[in-house]
Task: structure prediction
Amino acid sequence: MLVAPALLLLVSCQTSSRSATSRPSTGTPSVGTAPTVSPALRHLIYAAQNDGTVHVYDIDAGHSLLRAIRVFACCADVRGAAAAAPTHRFYVMYNRGSEGHVAALDLNNDQVVWDRILHSPGVDRGSVTPDGQTLYLPTWESDPGSPYELVVNAANGDVAARIPLPARSHDTLVSLDGRRVFMETKSATAVMHVVSTATNQVDETITGYCCGGVLAPFSVNGNGTRMVNDVLGLAGFQVADIATARVIATVRFGSGSSGHGIGWTPDEREVWVDDGAAALVHVFNMTVDPPAQTHTVSVSSPNPHWVTFSIDGRWAYVAGRKGRTDPTDVIDTGTYQRVASLGPSEDLLEVDINGSTVTSVGNQFGVGRAG
Result:
């Protein structure tokens, strides 16, 4: 959808208002002074697109588009997004012309703080520590010649270290407590790597994956005890116990194909898994053993490629085919129905802002938050 620049300017300059669920000011004004009104808490989605913009949507206003921020010149292959509340930074990982970039955006003023080439020929979906100090950056699933991940100073983009890892490093996720980093590669190792953020060394490998051992997207619950993984060739997913570092269950679709995209709902009651050959997302109840499929969610893309959630779990965001113009569907997790759509992006997450302060950020990965 094209939005006129004048409209974007008008919307971005207006005071953002909440829906009917806005919290009123609880302050008591002094006699003879005007009441003090607390700034509105805004729940926003920041979504990076291949055209070099980050689109900002207002969750509380039906996911309406507020503005588009120019981050880099069109066009590129966006590989990931991450954010940190304490430093009010939003990071975009993208590849263009055999160069892997990371751009850092200041969420307080929509300005690009730095944009640096950090690896050639590319980078992939990285993750930042909760304190905003360190970025863990894969060296791209299509690069067989770089057997490591990068440890990056998130303040300025300086590379601080390399972590030895099988080549083709891909999806990377920092735990909610910031103590561990979970790393997946596209090498056929049948292994997930767990790195300590204190030492930047691999201190655990999770084994037991099936089907040739090429792993795909994954997610972790809030207290870091359970992992769910897509595995290439498996029409379903596998569950790993992180403490014992072993796969403990293989869960199959009733019918469907091996897909790309998996996430816990924030309350950890469900796992949503994209189908690889149909416009469907499979929903599993994780409170029973073995996990049981309860729903299939119809989406607009014939091959959904990613799924994540709002912080409160009310909304799921299901992205379409990688590199295409498929919209990203907004799904009401209470009804399992599509209620809105965003521009084409799987590289998105929630940012909550109270006045001019970033209070919390979500995650591109659909992570559990109940731990």
